[in-house]
Amino acid sequence: MKDTVTTALMERALRGDARGAEAVLGAARASIGIPGAQPDARRSPSAGRSLALVAMLGVLVVGVGVLAVSRGHSDGAATRADEPRPYVIASWLPSGLKPVDVESGSPKAGTTNGTVFGEWNADRTRLVRATAVLRSEGAQQYADLAVPDDAAPVQGRTGWVSSPNDRYRLGFAVVSWTDGVVRTTVLGRGVSVVQLTMWADSIGDDAWRPEGMELVYRGGLDTGLALTSGLAPRKQYEEASGGPGVRFVGLSVRSDAAFDPVSMLWLYPDSVVLPDRSLDVTPTGNARIRLLRFADKSAVSVDVGGLDDEELQRVVGGLRPATEKEWNEVATDAPPTSARVTATLPSPPKPR
Amino acid sequence: MTSEDMTAGDWYVTGFVAAYPRLRRFAAVVADTDMDPDDVLHDALVATLAAEERGARIADHEAYLRTATFRAVLGRRRRAAGARARYVVPEVEAVQTDRYPSDVAGILDRLEPADRALLYLVDVEGWTSGEAARALGTSSTAARARLSRARRRLRRDPTLEESR
């Protein structure tokens, strides 16, 4: 018996492709902000800040990170050092809401580019089915949300496959694989796992299309992902009561003149494209998110809880550029952090 | 040159490269199969670097990292359990499948991380139970008892009985 167990232990000890000492050490140093450290392209999505995206989706990832990396870093990828940081605040808020919190955002090295395909509804305001192909290099694996429940050969590599009805009920099938430093993740909403796996294996040049879908967006996804994941600087307004069910408004801002809200149409099933090309999302429960381009260089996400359509529209309509001082102002009677966190977590999505 | 002879920075430049294969093998054994060994090792490194930033003086980095790796696995398990508790997980009907000799590797999944760590360090790396106990921050007596229970459990596993 001992030989059998020893063999099994040795096999287990050698499982997976080792990233190498330099990659792992570089990523760890980058996590705690040691200068000169390099991020690890293959690291799984475990940094604590990515929990915000998961929270918005109403799902949770096994193995969320050990260390929040928000240690006062600047919002690095899209904002150069010589470029003024964008600040946007709400000039109108529902009565009783006060600024209670400001987060500086987290560093995000590397890039994620993507191609979004979809089948539009009749008035072309939402996608009936969607497929997104994300390629991340040196970036946190935002889209690696699912818990793989199967493996399949994809593009000559081992692909990890998750079904839309996995235990975290993400609502989309996911196939992902790694090739060198590039992690490719293919997500499909309204698409079976088998179909998505076949598509993933057939992805070729830019002319490639999933059957029955058209090209919706091709380009960078860093800004959209940062805005929806809590990696961008964020300011929160809320009722003084704190506690579950509190009404709140959160603003996240990032500098990106090329930001297109439609780039994130794949992420939430209820996303609606508005006439000004903003994206309106009801992720879960009473939460709402509005992704928009603001002014020339800013991309903004407004996430609200407990507000009706008219109030959300007034908040969005009242956004204005602000100074750093205005951005950093918060109320002194802010409720405890725990209450705020509870209030901003939406319920899990209903199984589809 | 031992860890104590180097500055912390020196050790990471040279010592970690040498220790990485050993630490990764340990992480791969202790971590559950849905955890990436390098992610676990990353967690351990972050904890170790953070401790040093707070002023901790680490005499033996490899030993410290091994313990931190073990704790990182337990931390990830706790967080996963917390996540499951907060959200309703639909029940999935168990499917009875035939067992094959290749399932032998699967029996390790049914052991606790501490059991796998002890079995690996003692049976594969050839450590004494006392040395393994120190690596996991437990007593020799507790480690021996754990090893004994783990081996007894493995002996009773039908997969192993079939493979003998």
How would you characterize this protein structure?
The complex is a heterodimer of chains A (352) and B (164). The longest helix of chain A has 12 residues, at 2-13. Chain A is globular and about 70 Å long. The N and C termini of chain A lie far apart (47 Å). Chain A is of the alpha+beta class and 352 residues long. Chain A is built from eight helices and 16 strands. By secondary structure, chain B is an all-alpha fold. Chain B contains eight helices and no strands. Chain B has helices spanning 8-30, 37-53, 61-86, 104-107, 113-124, 129-136, 140-156, 158-163. In chain B, helix 1 crosses helix 3 (61-86). The longest helix of chain B is centred in the middle third of the chain and has 26 residues, at 61-86. Chain B is globular, with a radius of gyration of 18 Å. At the A-B interface, helix 1 and helix 2 of A face helix 1, helix 2, helix 3, helix 4 and helix 5 of B.
What ranges of chain A have pLDDT less than 50 throughout 5 or more consecutive residues?
35-82, 139-145, 335-352
- Tell me the number of helical segments of chain B per DSSP (H or I, 4 or more residues long): 8
Helix content of chain B: 55-70%
Largest interface: A-B, 51 and 53 residues
Radius of gyration of chain B: 18 Å
Number of helices of chain A: 8
Structural class, from helix and strand content of chain A?
Answer: alpha+beta
Assembly status:
heterodimer
The major beta sheet of chain A can be summarized as:
7 strands, antiparallel
Q: What is the number of beta strands of chain A?
A: 16
Distance between the termini of chain A: 47 Å
Q: What is the string of helix and strand elements of chain A?
A: HHHEEEEEEEEHEHEEEEEEHEHH
**DSSP strand count of chain B:** 0
Q: Which regions of chain B are unreliable across 5 or more consecutive residues at pLDDT < 50?
A: 1-5, 85-102
Spatial order of the strands forming the largest sheet of chain A: 2-10-11-15-14-13-12
**Average pLDDT number of chain B:** 77
